Amino acid sequence: MIDFDRETQRTGSHSVKWDMMNELFGKNDLLPMWVADMDFAPPESVMTSLTKRLEQPPYGYTFVPPSTARTIADWLEKRHGFKTNASWYLYSIGVVPSIATAIRALTAPGDHILTMTPVYTPFFGMIEQNGRNVVTTQLIEQDGRYEIDWEDLSQKLSDVKMFLLCSPHNPSGRVWSSDELKKLSDLCAEHNVVLVSDEIHSDLIYRHARHVPTAKAAGDKHSHIITLVAPSKTFNLAGLQASAIICSDEEIREKIKEEQGRQGFFTLSTFGITAMEAAYSEGEKWLESLIDYLTGNLKLVRNTVSEMDQIDLMEPDSTYLLWLDARKTGLSDEEIKKKLVDEAGLALEPGDKYGKGGEGFIRMNIACPRSMVEEGLRRLQMVFK
Ligand SMILES: Cc1ncc(COP(=O)(O)O)c(C=O)c1O
Q1: How far is residue 243's CA from residue 90's CA, in Å, rounded to a whole number?
Q2: What angle do CA 343, 347, 351 make, to 5 degrees?
Q3: CATH code of the region 49-282
Q4: Where exactly does CATH 3.90.1150.10 map onto the chain?
Q5: Ligand 1: which atom is nearest the Cα of residue 232?
Q6: pLDDT tens-digit profile of 122-146?
Q7: What fold characterizes domain 16-42+284-383?
Q8: I need a surface site. Which of 12, 105, 232, 339 has the fewest CB within 10 A?
Q9: Best residue for ligand 1 mutational test, from 16, 34, 99, 170 (most atoms within 8 Å of Cβ)
Q10: Domain with CATH 3.40.640.10 in the chain
Q11: What does the alpha-carbon distance between residue 272 and residue 336 come to, in Å, rounded to a whole number?
Q12: pLDDT for 276-307, tens place per residue?
């Protein structure tokens, strides 16, 4: 039995979520329910493996052994029915760095890159900071769910080199269906567009839904797809910085490898490799318990919010990030943030950060002990009806 109710002490650990609030919210004594990591210890098996490695100093250069690709491949096949070949794997210290590397390797300065908004903020930064242009297509809200604007998307694909997909979708938790993914993949192939599929949230799926890797949904035509996965969200290992880039096309892999070479990237950290293997090979039971616990937290939010006039929940299929619709308050994002910080003492991310369509929403992280979710909701109710 895993005790997700137990509070962890994170202040003073250089935690971005707990120790960096001042930078973003102007105060430190807030209840932090923002940045996407969890207030839970990772699986015991991961900590045991790390301790074992810690007790075998020194911590010199460590290569990623062939067993790592096999471990991730086994996980992807077992959890998502996605068959990958060990030769398709490259590694990276994070999914955001992988996006930057793919952009630099496969597009040129001035090229256009498409993404669907609202979306995880660093997508914009990685495109712009690398001198490429962001092209967006806005997701359409239909019956409380995001749908793809196919007409707009198809039109825009004709003028871009790359498409950045967030699957499942952060911030709404929407899981894209196999049909939607197949259509996206076919459209990208038709327009000669590289499809980068960020699947970092793909293991955190609620019981009613099923994640399909884009490259699996694509069927035989998947050589233009780059899949990005990591154990960081699933097992709460973001600080260990280990992730994988999966692509069946040798030419694309070579270009990515060359770009990594130009950046001087050679291998992952000793502890990142250890934790990644331990998590994927021994963390499944823990993950199942985590999903149950998150389902309980989600239910609590759903019940509370259903009694509030000003806040609606966009029902998620996945992730511990909830997309709360606060548009009925009639307030701007700045006003919402100010109210949350100054009156409720809550550090939550305002929706306009996520691009067009995100305005008036709030993103709430519920990967914390239930007592904290209860407190967060109490504070939310203090400022919104
Ligand atoms: C969609 C998405 N991609 C990437 C990341 C970050 O990945 P990494 O820490 O591996 O760079 C996050 C973190 O919140 C995310 O939500």
Answers
A1: 9
A2: 100
A3: 3.40.640.10
A4: 16-42+284-383
A5: 10
A6: 999 999 999 999 999 999 999 999 9
A7: Aspartate Aminotransferase, domain 1 (3.90.1150)
A8: 12
A9: 170
A10: 49-282
A11: 38
A12: 999 999 999 999 999 999 999 999 999 999 99
